[in-house]
Amino acid sequence: MLASLLLGLLGSLGHCVGMCSAVVILFDRQPVFQNKFAWILAHAGRITTYSFLGLLFGAFGQTLWSLDKLQAALSILFAIVALYMASAFIGLTPSPELLFSPVTQRWGRAIRAFKTASLPASYLLGLLWGLLPCGLVLTALVTAIASKSAVYGALNMLVFGVATVPSLFAVKWLASKSISRAWSRGLASIVMMLFGFQFAMRGLAVIGWIDHLMIGELMLW
């Protein structure tokens, strides 16, 4: 869960502030969001969606990891995905979000067409917000799969979602802090690189090329 926490805290300073500032503006135009409690409900809805996705991806990972012969291949595959996400996060490779640009455009049109004055509907908007294609969320979902558990997958995404809240509440102020956004993206990228390295080493250990590394009863790889 530490990787999810750091991704949420550091990634939100760089990635979410840039990407979700437009979402915050869209929501702010809705009369209901003049009530601060509506923002709390929207973030609760977003985190609910993340947690549900974590549950699904964690269950998927649990199924895959139960197949012993696939463990090495899966570890190396997760390592490649993590390293690609890390490089995309600092602009070295194309962001996976580009693949979902048509979906993102449709999402934006749906949100603009959504008119509401009720607080419960702000929670619904938050649920939809959580479905917005996002490279940082996709990266966090790698940790959910790697948790090898539906419960821990959900908890990973819950921690990730909660960690993004402070930056998104301060999005207008943080949007002007380009220097802080640059270093935060770099640190978040390092977190993902370390995560990818761990899984690469685990894959090599499973096939017997290197030894497993144990710290007490904890298997690092």
Which helices and strands appear, and what pairs or packs with what?
Layout: H1 2-28, H2 36-65, H3 71-89, H4 101-113, H5 119-129, H6 135-146, H7 150-169, H8 171-174, H9 178-206, E1 214-215, E2 218-219
Helix pairs in contact: 1-6, 1-7, 1-9, 2-5, 2-6, 2-7, 3-6, 3-9, 6-7
What does this entry look like structurally?
With 221 residues, this protein is an all-alpha fold. The chain has one domain (2-219). The chain is 75% helix and 2% strand. It has nine helices and two strands; from the N terminus they run αααααααααββ. Strands 1-2 form a two-stranded antiparallel ribbon. The longest helix is centred in the first third of the chain and has 30 residues, at 36-65. The radius of gyration is 18 Å and the shape is elongated. The mean pLDDT is 80.
In total, the number of strands is: 2
Mean pLDDT across all amino acids = 80
Largest sheet: 2 strands, antiparallel
Instruction: Tell me the span between the first and last alpha carbons.
Output: 16 Å
Q: Helicity range of the residues?
A: over 70%
The helix-and-strand class reads mainly alpha
CA-atom Rg in angstroms: 18 Å
Order of helices and strands: HHHHHHHHHEE
User: How many domains is the backbone divided into?
Assistant: 1
**General form:** elongated
Strand content: under 5%
Number of distinct helices: 9
Query: pLDDT below 50 for ≥5 consecutive residues: which ranges?
Result: none
Query: Looking across the biggest beta sheet, what order are the strands in?
Result: 1-2
